[in-house]
Known about the structure:
The protein is mostly beta strands.
Amino acid sequence: MQKKSLMPLLMITLAGPLPAQYGAPDGEWHTWGGDHGFTRYTALDQINASNVQQLQVVWRWKALPLGNRPDSNLKATPLMVDGVLYVPSGQHQVVALDPATGQQIWRFDPDPSSVAERGLGLGSRALGLWQSGDETRLFHNTLDGRLISIDAQTGLADPEFGDNGSVLLREGLYPDGSDAESVGSSSPPAVVGDVVVAQVVGTITAPNKEVTPGHIRGYDVRTGELVWRFNTVPQPGEFGHDTWDGDSWRYTGNTGVWSMMSVDTETGYIYLPVEAGSNDFYGGHRTGDNLFSQSLVCLDGRTGQLVWHYQLTHHDLWDYDPPSAPILGDITVNGVRIKTVTQLTKQGMSFVFDRVTGEPVWPIEERAVPQSEVPGEQTSATQPFPSLPPPYLPQGYHEADLIDFTSEIRAEALAIASQYVRGPLYTPPTPMREGGTQGTWVNPGYQGGANWNGAAFDPQTGMMFVPLRNAPMSAALQEPDPARTNWNYLRAPSVFIQGPRGLPIVRPPWSLVTATDMNRAQHTWSRSIGPASDYIRDHPDLQGLNLDFDNMGHPMIRPSPLLTSGLLFMAEAGNLSGDPGGPMFRAYDKSTGDVLAEIELPIKASGAPMSYFHKGHQYIVIAVATAEQPAELVALALPGAAVSATQLPTSLVSGDQQDERPSTLTPASLAQAGQLFAVHCAACHGIQGQGIPGGSAPSLGNARDLQQVRAMISSGAVEMPAFALRLSAQDIDLLSQFVVEGLPSSAAVE
């Protein structure tokens, strides 16, 4: 069963002005997406087509360091509430800034600074907000597993909430009341009335099949007392329990919410994009359809009761988690106004539902898909495909999609493609075979398509604007060492399939944005996001071919959009890790996709832009960062808002300028460690740890904390396998020491 509604079909016809819940309110910005429906839309229009070319940087704020190193991957989008900006930064900290100058008003430092060692490579994307009368609270869902309540006026933890202002989210996570070992989140909680709803993520790459689940819980905003829980893996007697065969419900984990949750403030409903169960590429330990994994789930946010759900992928094997916050809006279909929720997917699809009843707005078809031949695996016979809107990208393998700039490049691309099992969308992962295929060709890749950067929705017109990445990946299985794990198969490292001669494997555009009229479920325009990278433009094998480099799109990027009454804004950078792309921030005519302005940022964008109005001026703020340039917030505005006294401070955090790395490795150990790095790390991070053109893994030039590096190598990360399942403890120690001491610093790899 894929969908169950607990309410009758209800089509709502609306007349007059749009409800106030759509779009960022009153010139402010209250969630990562601006409003609780995550439209990323503001009605502000001081910055418009006639003057957007005059935008300039008016202030810069340097982000807090991550412990003893600079932040090179700031993902935070500030909130703007009652004339103050609030942004998470550093080591689970929060800062209040003056929106006109970027000057610090207060800084919240949690006590203790950390309660769990989960690494600090990916910080929080935003904060949650609650207001009642004169009270305003900020809720911080931290990477180390705390839900912290902060008084927005004082910057102090609310002593009435939980234990001196915080709740440990690992406590009582299991339905029997027992604690999880470790949880955390990079996404903000959601607030529904007087309930704050927190999501958690357990072990990213679990060493065994017994994995921490991602059950969702709601807490009283004033006291921190548990109000409700929703088990994303249904327990005995709960709806959906029969979709887990045998005892798999007991030990299967994940099935949490990686991304952000949307709230309908009128009904009190909350919408959860629930991820896959463990592990991502092999489901022989969890046969069945596995509700509520890979589902859009609607709960009553005040009680936690299930209202409706729809499973977007049955028994997922492709890491096709619903990646972005569901988008709430109203559209008109055949003359009827419908209150909708839209869920984008990594597969390049958009599923659209009546958000009150859960009924699909357009039919969703169950189609037969290829079946797995991996021992123990039981793939679903069918998968759901929305009939409308059309897919945003080619799906599955198509030879015509391969790069074809020259006949020689085309032949090499065909040879590379032959190394993978190829087929239509949902061709199952396959084992890596020595001398044979190296896994399954997955397109769109499991990093999108669409991803956490989401889309923007115009409540005035019903248009949706979706940034996309066009990059196939490999889904491969590896046979484990039974002495190290009880998995039957391990997920192989995430791999973007590289094309010939350092080029992408498929034809451009490699990043694009598509505009969709959601009233008609039809795409109206699509264009590249920026030009080809300099590496491709200057490639010696592409000279003299009359290629349209200006419209190829930067490889590997996935920027977040910002929508105003007349303009669409996007950077030409943005990724989960690493920093591909370029420094341009563009304004587009949202009706045609034409570029109206290009503003060069001082550093590549790393986060999602937001906009607000303050003291007569409209501002746009975006996070920027690279491995070589520590993170900042950059504010853009028209010339009248410019300030001169708040330029980037010249003082740097401790260690920013320290390039020397005295090594304690002996020559023999250095050689051995270098070989380990070459075999296990260089394909993603580059032979000197500097990253690779078109890749997504970050530079390692600023990795200097031995304990953090060892933990990351051992336990893995979002785009990285857990090497504790592959290497001995001695090899991990040696490899960690090499990363910290043996690689050149970022400054040296220029």
